[in-house]
Design the sequence.
């Protein structure tokens, strides 16, 4: 029987796209069929987004991406001004990225653990499993505690998740133990991060503890409507947009919806001009995650000229697509949007 | 070429589980293999939840379930005290159920539309598509508008989604045009409904409009941390719980997490004693939706004695599983939990 | 640790569609969306095939269907003249159905075994696993041996798999220990069964042993081209045809191809007029199993008026679709085609 | 509306693994999670097979691989002695590879055609569709005709598919118009190719025409039992084996079964020592394609030390896995097995 120390001995190492020039391989895929062809077209569309000076790029993250070794791809994308805004599940941003920023790690599980027959034993050891990846649950509780302390230190009022995550970036800038963090890079490069279901992660635990301790007193709350309002302001301020969607779920829906929200505020905003989604979800269950980008165009959310679905698990497709755009280099001529500055102005004006 | 009127002519009719006694068929499935066997065991576990007087039943909804014809199943489950709490995506509760409560309908799309080649035309006609289902976009805008008016009429403060949805139930009780509504039935039977990503739906549009109009003045906000806090209070007040999870996503994660949240508040809460999940999501992409209930047990969230994954699209599995439990009739001896009453006490104490 | 006896204690019981009138439930599904709607339409198309006096019905079987508890559905379909011809993988017909005809059984595996961590132990015990189902490997070796004895008793020449399987039916009629067998029912009702990859099953083991023992002498061989030739004769003799395809693979392809084969023989044969396929295979990997019936129409194989894909695992969908057609009763007015008689004439003429 | 010429204007170009050194990228993937990690381990296992001088490598092909642009990967693998035997669906070998050897091509379909709404028009134009790939049906009929002429030129007797495919290789050596062919390379390098369901492809059409024309006279037949017998002889002659399985279906089952077949001939053969499978098929429908290699070990077919499933669509995974082994170079020190020579001796002795 394994010990906790044995289980947590092989750490995940994040892939570094700057070291792998995949351009020739992806270009070759463009004359193949099936997923290779779709992936090559998606990579080209992402490169076009970066070459279109007016386009703001919104990256949507769902699934266990950071824990799976993709963190550095997104850190690099932020640093290389290949993304202007991130919409994510809380798990990627808080439980996984912020967690690593605090100095903790993810670990490769022995193959056998995938089967699920040892999960009772893992629970006893305070080891949490994500398919083939392991986390020290005691470290995760520390992460909850840090988010609580951040909440405790803030003036009590409703915050967008974006505002709260920015405070987390500030915390990492001062106290972080691993500078390779999406939250930190986004903080440093004025890239807003939204988690529309923010309580659905480690931060939720911290916030519940915060609110409980405050009792009847004023407290920090997370206003999910404000998230939506802020993202809409960005769309209005920068009408040409592109989506790079990894997984589906709430981030995909939220980012798509912003076109309609702008219209509701009486501002005409065009559909997302570019859109790429990487997913293995199936269209046939009718759920949003697997729904096509064409379907989104019936809702007036995504234009149909430059859209591409890619049927692939993210750990294979993301290094190829983002790596392609990185080595093509359109981002080198791109000015950073620094959308945080738009929001901080906006926030003062309307909030 | 089709007209809008032609497209919106065949309305979805919701399946009525009270008219189909599937008990003999599901019992027969229990001696088969594969999904039939898993479905039969899941149905049995749900029936056990209802026969366990201490167990509070939490229903989690993700995917396009209401629009697909499953609304009446959930309405009946609420009325027959087969569910004590609902955690859902906003789409099911607001865009689809509340929408129908206002008197609008969903429509069967001609088969050809599934392919996506006519989506540009649908956009011109203001018809929105969910795979093989159609919605009148103009009616959906009305639904946004009603949520705005509800927000406008409330005292400005942070609300849990549960509180806001209760106001929607109150609205339907007075103004609704179709009494067959989950929101209305839940209102009448004191069943709380949580949408942890509440701005990610039609209500989000209404709330953005509300907040925009208020400008610098005080406004209604949706506190997603409060959602989590409230659900945790329910778990603490009623430690024995069972999950009936349809689809995955935020509702699944949120409902599972409450066990950990209780612990963070210093209250020991046992893992969910029973758990069933119906999904076609694949475990191999590592995302939460497809992750097994066994995996959740490594996190200390779900017990492994009475758990069952069912690999099936929901429109096939839900009528069989919920119909089985309905016709077995354990619910007839069950006292309603009326958890709204727990929360309204709680809310006064801590909010 | 489990013993062999413990493992092989709960036998699979085959579902009996005659006892479950699913017509009202399936009719209700026709006004729902997603898989429910597709399943209802597929059931209606199958019923139409049976009501069309000219239509010959070809049932295609792939996947572990018999072992999963669907055997009796197909036995009943043969007896109730709901099928005129079967094209199958060898596993369903030989390893599973003929095997049960010899008096052996399939067993429900304990849930834990699905995970695969006990497979080394199963091997030691001579227990074979199909996902959640178990087989006594020693009994399977007996099945191989019977097929060898059948081969040894036949005049040495090339046989179609259909001819060989008919000999297996004759064997069961005389020596079988369980009359509930597809092979036996087909033998008694003159329904031909083709296994186009016949050596890819238990019969292959028997035939290898037969051919090895014969050395240089004349021996029985299985002529897969003759299979194709025979099925083509049926299409020519009975031009109106419908396909009920469960799973994909070789049976689907083989049955579709017969339209083209007829043309190559200079005989115009219309496309399959009706076609239903039940599968969870994904269209996006480009393989035949998941390819749509519309795609088959580009090849001139399947007409597009009455075709329907159903996204469902077979143990859930087959009892509903075949059960629907059974209880609708169009088969009661249907004359059996007795296609064996066509072939035995044909065989004499051309073989 | 498109013309046939417009549709058939962009030909598939096959990816050339010799030009893309993916070793650093795949090595980086070995410290990631999910599919990246599994793919890296699979690539390592394939490299180990090639470094194990005793191991015979069996490549199994199912799905539309050649038409999708993977042909050159397999041609290169044959030429670089990275494979000793191929077991395939007929479609890959005859309709796609032999077809290209005759000088014909596959074409990229316009994206819109994937949806299936234009398939009636394709049929009128004699254009066949495989998801996003197109074929000139008239050229395919030429391919059928060539296989017929090959059959007509052979002495009438039962042939294994391997023998017949070898004649096809001989035909290409003399008459082929494109030397980049798996069938030709295998012919030149003495690599046997088996198609256990050989009539289920273009060759089936040719053979049906051949048999029909022969009437009562002696004719060429395809003995599928002989296929199995030959492959078993190879396993007995070379007990250490490894499987590289792309897709599932008949080729996977057939190659796995050979271990049992050897035992039935009274020869102990060890389980396949190495095994890799690339598939997106789901384990939950119980079919062979998605069944795990661990499950195969319960049947005594595959050892569990060096086995790996990879969840990926083949056009993405194959260039990485085979490319990795190519550039690692273990094959450079490998002696070709030239298994045709084993069989031709064997065939004389027992046939």
Sequence:
């Amino acid at each position: 029987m394994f010990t906790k120390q044995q289980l947590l001995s092989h750490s995940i190492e994040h892939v570094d796209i700057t070291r792998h020039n995949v351009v020739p391989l992806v270009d070759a895929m463009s004359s193949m069929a099936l997923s290779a062809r779709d992936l090559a077209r998606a990579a080209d569309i992402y490169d076009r987004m970066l070459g279109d000076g007016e386009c703001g790029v919104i990256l949507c993250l769902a699934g266990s991406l950071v824990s799976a070794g993709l963190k550095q791809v997104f850190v690099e994308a932020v640093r290389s001004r290949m993304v202007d805004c991130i919409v994510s599940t809380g798990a990627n941003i808080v439980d996984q990225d912020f967690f690593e920023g605090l100095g903790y790690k993810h670990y490769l599980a022995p193959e056998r653990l995938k089967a699920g027959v040892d999960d009772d034993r893992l629970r006893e050891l305070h080891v949490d499993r994500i398919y083939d990846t392991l986390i020290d649950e005691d470290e995760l509780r520390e992460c909850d505690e840090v988010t609580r302390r951040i909440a405790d230190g803030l003036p009590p009022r409703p915050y967008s998740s974006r505002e709260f995550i920015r405070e987390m970036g500030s915390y990492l800038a001062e106290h972080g133990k691993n500078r390779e963090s999406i939250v930190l890079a986004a903080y440093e490069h004025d890239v807003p991060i939204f988690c529309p279901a923010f309580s659905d992660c480690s931060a939720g635990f911290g916030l519940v503890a915060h609110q409980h301790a405050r009792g009847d007193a004023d407290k920090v709350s997370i206003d999910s409507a404000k998230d939506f309002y802020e993202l809409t302001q960005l769309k209005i301020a920068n009408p040409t947009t592109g989506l790079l969607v990894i997984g589906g779920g709430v981030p995909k829906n939220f980012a798509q919806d912003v076109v309609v929200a702008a219209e509701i505020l009486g501002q005409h905003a065009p559909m997302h001009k570019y859109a790429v989604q990487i997913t293995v979800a199936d269209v046939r269950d009718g759920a949003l995650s697997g729904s096509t980008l064409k379907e989104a165009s019936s809702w007036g959310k995504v234009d149909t000229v430059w859209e591409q679905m890619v049927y692939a698990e993210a750990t294979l497709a993301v290094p190829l697509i983002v790596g392609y755009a990185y080595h093509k280099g359109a981002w080198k001529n791109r000015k950073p949007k620094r959308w945080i500055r738009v929001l901080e102005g906006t926030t003062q004006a309307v909030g």
